[in-house]
Each structure stands twice: as C-alpha cells, then as structure tokens.
Amino acid sequence: MPVPTAGKPMRSLPTLLLSACLLTLFLPNLHAAPPAPRYSVTDLGTLGGDESVAYAINNRGQIVGGADTHVRGPDGEYITYVFLWSGGAKRKLNNMPGRHYYAAGINDRGQIAGAYSARPESGTYTPFLYANGKLRLLGALPRSGGSLAISEAYAINNAGQVVGVSNGQAFSWKNGKMRGLPMPPRFTTTTAFAVNGRGQIAGSGVGPGGTFFRSHALFWQGNRTTDLGTLPGFGDTEAHGINARGQVIGWTNRRQAGGSPVFRAFLWQSGKMRDLGTLPGIRDTRATALNDRGDIVGRIVGHVARKGNERAVLWRGGHLYNLNDLIPRGSGWVLEEPVAINNAGWIIGNGKHNRIAHAFLLRPR
To answer: In which element (H, E) is residue 162 found?
Structure first.
C-alpha cells in the first residue's frame, strides 16, 4: 500500500478520478476550433475614375494595382494607370502610360514585374521589370515561324528572378538572361505563375491526358520538371502559388457530361496533393495564393449559373472561412476574389464596394 506523504492525508483512487473529471470542466478545450480571425477593410481607391484592381503585395505592405483616371482615351474608355500603394498613400507610376501596362508581382525590394504592350489591341505583350524608377523590357523567347505571341511576367522573388510565359513556354529571367523552363515530353505549352526565394517555380502546362490534352500542374526546380498529378476523380489541374516551404496551391476540375466542370482547391507538398475542402452548399473552390505560414486565400462559387456569386475565402489551420463574414458589418463590401496574402496576413483582392468594382486590403485586427 502506498505510503502517505508526510503531513498530507492519502486520497483514494475514486476521489482522485472525481477531482480530475471536475478539473476538465474548467480547462479550455484544446481541440476546439480557434476563434475566427477578424479584419479591417481598406478601399484602395482609384486615380480619379470609377474602378480599380489589385495585383500583388509584398511583405512590407506595398501594393501594386491598376486604377481608372477621370480622363477618357481615344476609344472612349477611362485611361488607367499602374499604381503603387505604400503606407496609406497611393501614387501612379508615371513612366507606365495608361492602359499599356499591368503589374503582376512586387518583391520586398519594391521591384515590380508585369507586362507591356505597344499595341494592346493586338494582344501582343512583353514582360517588364520596374526597379529604382526605371523600366526594363525583358524580351522574349524565340518562336518557330517568326511571329510573336503573348509574353508576360507573372511573379518576382526577392532575388529579382522573374517568371512567366513567353511564346507558349514558361520562362525564368534573372540578371539579364531569359531561359525557357524544361517542357515535359508531348506538352504543347507551359506557363510559370509563381516563384519562391529558393528559385522553385509553380505553374501549368497543356499535355497529354487520355483522349484529349489537358492542363497539368507543374513544379520546376533547377532543370527538373515535376507533374503534380491531380485529386482522385479529377482531371485538369493548375498551380498558381508557391511559398518558401515548397507548398503549392491551385485547383483541379472534374468534367461533367452535359454540365460545367466542378472545381476543387488543392494543396501539394512533398509529392502529396490534398483537397482543401469546401463549405456546405458550395460547388466550386479555387486557391489563388498562400504565404510562408501556410495561410491560403481563394474563392468559392455557390452556383456557376448566377453571376456575381463568387466570394473570397481563407483557409487557415484546417478551417475554411468566408472573408465576408470576417469584416465589419455594414461596410458596403462584397469581397469576391483575393489575389495575394503576405506573411503578416495582409490580404489584397478585388470585389465590389457599394456595387462598384474596387480593390481592397484586409488587415488582421
């Protein structure tokens, strides 16, 4: 029989069990869902016109986007400019003439990547790098036949490495040199959408798949290209974001006879792809960006036949949140499509403020 501790009476086993049970009633549930995050919402405004759009954000909170002015061009539409938002102030980048440029990425050094067209009506674009107030066109990969197709930059990392597509092939540009990324056998086109600080690249390509060619999510590291596969029962797959941990996000779809395809957001890591899940009554989910903490943003669609039915969402810690439920009520906002999230948890995207298309910034409260 156990020996009682000096000065303390020995307690029986039933008494100990009862005390433990009572104690658990007052302890927090360690497996309960964490409190939902909350955000303030900022309208990124315009440049005197009606509408604006967000493109990218860096870890310093600098944002690039496009916004209308109040001046109409020769075609009767409002002239738009690329803008830089920093510290609550917004300015247009004057050496990017209206409607000929759009930005796609900004790194922590404030370097901006995007695309320029001398003849936007032709649909012909050239990737650019904007750094230290100077604009540099990055050129294009050669194309058989001599004519040029669309060449655009989609992302830039802190080393100044730019990725995108040029004449149907994914490219990486760094230190003045553009190279085409390896294209898997029997693929017809590839596109790079994201790059992390380690030079790992995520994107997509059109390649073989059963009777028809289909879209494949791709991962490039050095000279090696990896096909990320798809979720069980799904086919076409696209990768749109990558973080410092090598996690890749995007979406895949399942075609349906006589109907539109069903889309499902995924997370890929270390050779494994998993479904990010959905909300009750939601048909489609798409993941568009993530940060180094593993927070993912994207959009959901309740019913594809109803226009304006997209809503911005956040996946965090295994939970899926409608971002419209996490901002102050009565704000006048409908958050539709988030496009980026930085490591501080700031989210930018596009939606409608009082029914007018505007870019937004969400900051944790």
So the answer is: strand 162-166
